[in-house]
Amino acid sequence: MPDFHVEHFGCRAARADGEAVGSRLRAAGLALGDPADADVVVVNTCSVTAEADRAARAFIRRTHRLNPQARIVVTGCYAQRAPQELSAIAGVAAVVGNSHKALAPEIVLSVMDDARQHSAGLVSPSFVSLQSLAATSAPGTAQRHAPVWADDSFAHSFIEEAQLAPGEQTRPNLKIQEGCGNRCTFCVIPQTRGSSRSLPHDAVLRQVEGFVAAGGNELVLSGINLGRWGRDLLAEPGTPAQTLAGLVREIVERTGLPRLRLSSIEPMDWNADLIALMAEFGGGTLARHAHLPLQSGSDAVLRRMHRRYRPWHYVEKVEALLRAAGADLTLGADVMVGFPGETDAEFEETLAMVRALPFCYLHLFPFSPRPGTRGWALHSEYPVAQQAVEERMAALRTLALEKTTAHRMRFIGRALDAITLHTPAALAAKGRTAALTENFLPVEVAASGSMGPVAANQLLNVRICAIKLDGTLEAAAGRIEPPLRLPMRHEADPVLG
User: For residue 271, what is the domain's CATH number?
Assistant: First the structure.
């Protein structure tokens, strides 16, 4: 029987947290499996919307119903925001907020040990000790239900992952930044993850080099506010400040990583140095893919959101990225609908801006009031009617589909570089391989000659043949590319330290 299961909710950075917990548990000798059979189920929650909270609660209750013997450990943003609410749900054995997620693997191991000793009629001293720690780390919280590890100091919040390697995730996330201090009106992240903190430079490079040594071909740099990496790190006297652009340059020039992809970066953090890297390395080592959260195309709404850019700033960044990376750049954005007070005219400004810019996909969200934010109070004063929200979401979905289809159709007949993914059994049975192009297009690659589905983590050159109704591109297999491995930096290198 499997020992544990990790269920992920939320963004790439949150998934990286869950993957880090899972890698630590596997390193301890535990086996990963299905939640219906696991001894311990780790639920890695999101709390960016009320729907995210609801989905996590539903999963916890369903897991307890299907596997009542399982001990459920809840972590992530919801666990930080409302730990006592979660600790009262049947089946929950422990709640570990983001403030203590570095302790999550130890807590899971202790919960598992406690479960096994309990079934044998024994008491686990290790979990008793951890329960004592939970009580002291969360002063004033009741201990009527599952023990809680959560406070507002975030002293144990940055979990440095076990060495990344291609495995369950062909393209794993390396989270190099945690927290955010932007204080957007609608956002609960400063409460659930604290202020911005960076993984040290040397730790990042060790991870990248280890990933390359393990045969990895694509790595995704992620963070809660990725563009702020390095701003909290002290530079050595006489050396320049550490920046994301400087780190990316060092990775692409020194580590031998075949492909680096950047996850979401705030518009104003796409500075000249970072954009210049897209011009220099885009389409080679650096993926031509940029995700810039927009939220709204209305200046008035952006001001109410306390966003740190105006619509014309956003347009300038997109234009600069297109000049740097070319028209093959895949551009994505987050757009929020129904922010308090959003008028029909303000929404039309968003619609016009989305229509004018070359977006290739959109992540669309209805506004969700989060307790403790300014948006919560604004929602009570200036709510947007649900029918208006639904109509606006429908209009944006239609426009997004049109733009996605138009962008992908441009590549029919073109050759693109791609990386193979883990192919679902049903697709493999058709002789096809799931892959993702360098510029973030999903493709299904047909077998060539007698060649069957290609294993995950292979670099291919593919020729796009057609587009399916769901937007997936069909491609013919070209050559398998041996990745270019540059010499790794040496610890004694006087330039690199």
Answer: 3.80.30.20
